[in-house]
Backbone:
């Protein structure tokens, strides 16, 4: 049967676009659903500040009357300007195991990109680095996290068959929380504090707004992440949104800040209890009882697993061991809170500085994800 590609033009179709992922993965024990309302806001130009510098279209694949695939086509003009590229991104790609479907979806993105003057197609990528990115190519039997993509093992097979090549890989680690920090790690951390006249700062809720720490954190992330693959600077609108949406949910014990003698922020680490199981129980919905599962995981009965959401170090301090100070502060807190292991966020495989920070911990690289590219 012929595959038909239709552009999403109504809110009803957008809801079908979002829900296709839930249906495709509803019985999968490793997939973690996004929150439905968050996805509605992400795809809404009036709600997502990334549309200040992005444009997008969404496509659904039909076999007869049945939806069998979806994809978002995105042009991040800021990233293209930053890296001197003309690329159209594909994101939120899902499809049944039929090459006719995956081919038709990606051709729709290619065609739209060509019409916009693009020369290559790359993905999976979101609007920005704050969205999930990278197709899973290893670790299909590992529970996903709320910040990453889960996909079936046939996805990368389709990409290769369709002529896409590896553009970049990210790796992820499972890290055991040690019963005690190694003495050598403690000594080195204390030497670094003294040598560079640094101090560890524990954030208070009142300081986020009064002393503008939310802004300071995201300004640092912008600076630290600037050299990373495909990164585009967060706008003030995006920063305001992230401060409003996410910082109120963070247990401030799990936030570590490092400042210099003048009080300038030089490093930040943010972690939180894993919401993977809670999101599975919520089935992507806050109502009627999804909110209970999320609040329980955050504040009542925490899981044994934590997610390392953000680690950022000011560029001039990145080779001075300052990132060790974040874990010098946080690991004892993780121990007190009963966490047994943590999940790192995706790290570029070539970013040896970041991967070196796990050398003091028992760790295993258990997932790998990939961005693919093809000239169009």
Residues:
């Amino acid at each position: 049967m012929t595959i038909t590609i239709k552009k999403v033009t109504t809110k009803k179709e957008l809801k079908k676009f979002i829900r296709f992922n839930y249906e495709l993965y509803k019985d999968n024990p490793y997939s973690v659903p996004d929150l439905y309302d968050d996805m509605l806001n992400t795809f809404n130009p009036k709600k997502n500040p990334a549309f200040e510098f992005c444009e997008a279209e969404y496509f659904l694949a039909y076999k007869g009357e049945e939806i069998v695939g979806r994809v978002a086509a995105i042009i991040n003009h800021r990233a293209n300007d930053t890296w001197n590229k003309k690329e159209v991104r594909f994101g939120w790609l899902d499809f049944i195991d039929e090459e006719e479907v995956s081919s038709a979806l990606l051709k729709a993105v290619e065609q739209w990109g060509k019409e916009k003057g693009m020369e290559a197609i790359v993905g999976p990528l979101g609007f920005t680095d704050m969205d999930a990115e990278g197709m899973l190519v290893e670790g299909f039997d590992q529970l996903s996290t709320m910040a990453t993509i889960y996909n079936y093992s046939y996805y990368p097979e389709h990409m290769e068959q369709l002529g896409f090549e590896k553009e970049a890989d990210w790796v992820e680690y499972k890290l055991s929380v040690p019963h005690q920090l190694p003495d050598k790690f403690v000594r080195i951390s204390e030497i670094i504090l003294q040598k560079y006249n640094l101090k560890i700062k524990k954030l208070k809720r009142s300081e986020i707004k009064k002393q503008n720490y939310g802004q300071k954190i995201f300004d640092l992330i912008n600076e630290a992440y600037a050299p990373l693959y495909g990164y585009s600077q967060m706008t003030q609108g995006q920063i305001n949104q992230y401060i409003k949406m996410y910082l109120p949910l963070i247990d401030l014990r799990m936030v570590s800040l490092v400042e210099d003698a003048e009080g300038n922020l030089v490093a930040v680490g943010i972690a939180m209890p894993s919401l993977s199981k809670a999101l599975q129980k919520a089935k992507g919905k806050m109502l009627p009882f999804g909110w209970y599962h999320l609040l329980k995981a955050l504040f009542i009965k925490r899981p044994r697993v934590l997610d390392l959401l953000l680690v950022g170090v000011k560029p001039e301090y990145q080779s001075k061991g300052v990132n060790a100070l974040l874990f010098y502060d946080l690991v004892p807190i993780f121990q007190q809170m009963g966490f047994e292991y943590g999940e790192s966020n995706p790290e570029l495989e070539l970013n040896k500085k970041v991967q070196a920070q796990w050398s003091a911990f028992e760790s295993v690289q258990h997932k790998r994800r990939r961005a693919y590219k093809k000239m169009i």
In short: The first helix runs from residue 11 to 24. The chain has a mean pLDDT of 93. The chain has two domains: 3-171, 175-368.
